[in-house]
From TrEMBL, chain A:
PANTHER family membership: TRICARBOXYLIC TRANSPORT PROTEIN
Transmembrane segments: 16-42, 54-72, 106-132, 144-176, 196-217, 320-339, 351-374, 386-404, 410-440, 461-483
Alphabetical list of Pfam families matching this protein: TctA (PF01970)
Annotated organism of origin: Seohaeicola zhoushanensis
Domain of life: Bacteria
Stated name of the protein: Transporter
Keywords: Membrane, Transmembrane, Transmembrane helix
DUF112 domain residues: 17-435
UniProtKB/TrEMBL annotation, chain B:
Lineage, broadest ranks: Bacteria, Pseudomonadati, Pseudomonadota, Alphaproteobacteria, Rhodobacterales
The entry's keywords: Membrane, Transmembrane, Transmembrane helix
Pfam family, one: TctB
Protein's name in the database: DUF1468 domain-containing protein
Residue stretches spanning the membrane: 29-47, 59-78, 99-119, 139-161
InterPro entries in the cross-refs: DUF1468
Protein's UniProt keywords contain ATP-binding: no
Record field: compositional bias (Basic and acidic residues): 1-12
Domain DUF1468: 31-166
Chain spans, region Disordered: 1-22
């Protein structure tokens, strides 16, 4: 009963309803404008909303998240520029459709499919999370530690071509998170005897720098690119179209939820995998993939929205983010005095059900805003980058300053912005850095708890891992990810399958 | 997984970050060397926290992570040394074009001026300079756009989000009070 009441909170309070709506609306446009990303928007927003109550703050951020994941598809279809990483796969078939003059149909199908995907993701979240959190109570400190390592490795290996760079980025993040006084012994770590380092580095400054300023600097390479105008006619898709693609959308939604729920992986990877899946299962598409196949739109769009619900599962139950945005959400909950993890689900179940309710609401708003307001949309997206880029930078500075009213946070933010700019150029993924910063504390605490309970004995520690099924599974997963990226594995695979491939070729 | 076309994307996504597989971009070797040296410095610093005191000591995880950084940075560096350079790219054209350097300098100047000058004048200067630099339109347009956007940002963040930025030389508190009086007077 309490759960239902908490679930309905957002529907019964006009203020919260308005904030979710506003957030979704803003999210659709932020997601759609190339150069503005949801991660960027949510990280900047945390700093502005931290003086608010937790419900309104979360409502706004959930709206932006949901809307933003969808919004990226708009520009992917119209301009062949994915507005957000999760819309990269959408551009592959969406843009060819727009070129054929079917931009309206493409946007309509995308909207409805995002809605369906989003719904499935939320439903799975509502059903699965309570079970997972109950299960999570049995987690030992070492399991948390392994899970954190797994998350950082996963985002590193799936998100970039080079696992080594991903690992480097993740380790860097953990080190950044360790700066300051150690909370257990009060020893100084990485402070270089500087006053400014004693309190640690604000993770919001790192986040805004890496996702806000570095992205804005990157956009400077494309200032001159102009937006292309497209004529859009009918948007709302026919029922027959929706029904025809329903089976595929259910499959790809499942992929989306699972990928989203894996710690460290989010909508972008889910969309790419779903696209790949659609390509394999659709035997006879009406139009070939890459030339404007409807299936090529359905798959990534259902998957990336389903991943939203999925990403909340590890975040709410384990305190481990499902992707970069939920990593930031965890930060938001921390700031509001909540501690995501299994205890949150038990102590404050209403918080969980409130979030589920807000997600449902945001999903409806997304459907509504997705099918309306195309004219306004084309106007906003045509905003020149020469104005947009300085504004993003200004907002980043205000955001970094606002959290602690401290100018040193602005310097940190700018420093990480410049650093992130080079990392982007040289192919180092930024996601693992943020995940590392957020998980640093969890990893450090749980490692020390685990090793102390094993009386500082590494042998006993490993014995503990091998004898607990859960720890063993996590440990094997970590090892597998690691080994699968090394030349050793590739050579082994060639030895095993290489000869067969040769035969097949002949 | 099929190869994804990234030509039309800005290379800003985490799914497809910049950089090339099998080739080395200009400056990549220097960056790799800096990462390796920086990691070594951090490892030395981490060793200084508590040495090999105990497995649960505060320095253990920092030492482990910085060791991972050193090893991975070394692998990246050694691999980069053997890779051929991307042909046709230069640092000045593709990595650090003049406009990026200029905007970065503007940002640093902003950071230094923010406290003494205050939020409003610094931001106005920044926006006008940056928009003029990037847009290349006439002064009227540039100044109008800058001021309108600054006004919107100020109203949204100062009034709605109640974010306090350094006031500097502008009597901001008095301005807000005047605004408040104006609205409460209307009641």
């Amino acid at each position: 009963m309490d759960a239902i009441l908490a679930f309905l909170t957002v529907f019964t309070q006009p203020e919260l309803l308005l904030l979710v709506g506003l957030g979704t609306f803003a999210g659709v446009y932020i997601g759609a404008i190339p150069g503005l990303s949801v991660t960027m928007a949510v990280s900047i927003l945390i700093s502005f909303t931290f003086s608010w109550d937790v419900y309104p703050a979360i409502s706004l951020m959930i709206g932006i998240y949901m809307g933003g994941v969808y919004g990226g598809s708009r520009t992917a279809i119209l301009l062949n520029i994915p507005g957000a990483p999760s819309a990269i796969a959408t551009a592959l078939d969406g843009y060819p459709m727009a070129q054929r003059g079917e931009a309206g149909t493409a946007i309509g199908v995308t909207t409805v499919m995002s809605f369906i995907g989003g719904f499935i993701g939320i439903a799975v979240l509502a059903v699965a999370a309570p079970f997972v959190s109950e299960f999570a109570l049995k987690f030992q400190p070492r399991d948390y530690m392994l899970l954190a390592v797994l998350g950082i490795l996963l985002v590193g290996s799936l998100s970039s071509g080079s696992l080594v760079k991903g690992i480097f980025a993740g380790a860097l993040g953990i080190a950044i998170g360790a700066v300051g006084r150690d909370p257990l012994t009060f020893t100084e770590r990485f402070t270089f005897d500087l006053q400014i380092m004693q309190g640690g580095i604000s993770f919001i400054a790192v986040m805004i720098g890496m996702f806000g300023v570095s992205e804005a600097l990157m956009q400077l390479h494309h200032v001159e690119k102009d937006a292309v105008r497209q004529k859009i006619t009918r948007i709302v898709p026919s029922l027959a179209t929706v029904r025809k693609h329903l089976p595929l959308s259910l499959q790809t939604s499942t992929i989306g939820v699972i990928i989203g729920a894996l710690p460290g992986t989010g909508g972008d990877i889910a969309a790419l995998m779903a696209y790949d899946h659609a390509k394999r299962v659709t035997k006879k598409p009406e139009v070939p993939f890459g030339k404007g196949a409807m299936e090529g739109l359905v798959a990534p769009e259902t998957a990336n929205n389903a991943a939203v619900g999925g990403a909340f599962i590890p975040m709410m139950t384990l305190g481990i983010p499902g992707d970069a945005v939920t990593a930031i959400m965890i930060g938001a909950l921390f700031i509001h005095g909540l501690n995501p993890g299994p205890m949150l689900m038990i102590d404050k179940p209403d918080m969980f059900w409130f979030i589920v309710g807000a997600l449902v609401m945001a999903n409806f708003f997304m459907l509504f805003f997705g099918l309306t307001g195309i004219k306004l949309f084309t106007k906003i997206v045509e905003m020149p980058r020469s104005v947009l880029i300085p504004l993003i930078m200004l907002l980043s500075i205000v955001g970094a300053y606002a959290v602690n009213n401290s100018i040193s946070d602005v310097y940190w933010m700018l420093g990480f912005g410049f650093f992130g700019y080079f990392m982007r150029h040289y192919g180092y993924p930024l996601g693992p850095v943020i995940l590392g910063v957020i998980l640093s504390r969890l990893l450090d605490d749980n490692w020390r708890r685990a090793i102390i309970s094993e009386r500082e004995d590494l042998g006993r520690f490993f014995y503990g891992i091998v004898t607990s099924p859960l720890s063993l599974v996590l440990f094997i997963a970590v090892i597998l990810i690691f080994v699968s990226q090394t030349p050793l594995w590739r050579r082994g695979k060639e030895k095993l399958f290489g000869t067969q491939v040769e035969e097949a070729r002949q | 997984m099929s190869k994804i076309e990234t030509e039309h994307h800005d290379g800003t996504s985490d799914a497809t970050p910049g950089g090339y597989e099998g080739q080395r971009r200009p400056g990549e070797l220097v960056f790799g060397a800096a990462m390796l040296l920086g990691s070594l410095g951090l490892l030395w610093n981490a060793y200084g926290i508590s040495g090999f005191d105990a497995l649960s000591a505060p320095g253990t995880v920092p030492m482990a992570t910085t060791s991972v950084m050193v090893i991975s940075a070394a692998i990246v560096f050694l691999r980069d040394m053997r890779l051929p350079r991307v042909s046709g790219e230069t640092v000045l054209k593709d990595i650090l074009p003049g406009v990026v350097v200029l905007v970065a300098l503007l940002l640093i100047a902003y950071g230094f001026l923010l406290q003494p000058l205050g939020f409003l004048p610094t931001s106005a200067l920044f926006l006008v300079t940056a928009i003029k630099l990037l847009g290349g339109r006439n002064w009227t347009w540039t100044i109008a756009v800058s001021f309108v956007s600054l006004l919107i940002i100020w109203i949204v963040f100062r009034i709605v989000f109640t974010v306090l930025m350094p006031a500097g030389i502008v009597p901001e508190a008095e301005m807000v009070q005047v605004l408040r009086n104006l609205f409460s007077g209307a009641k």
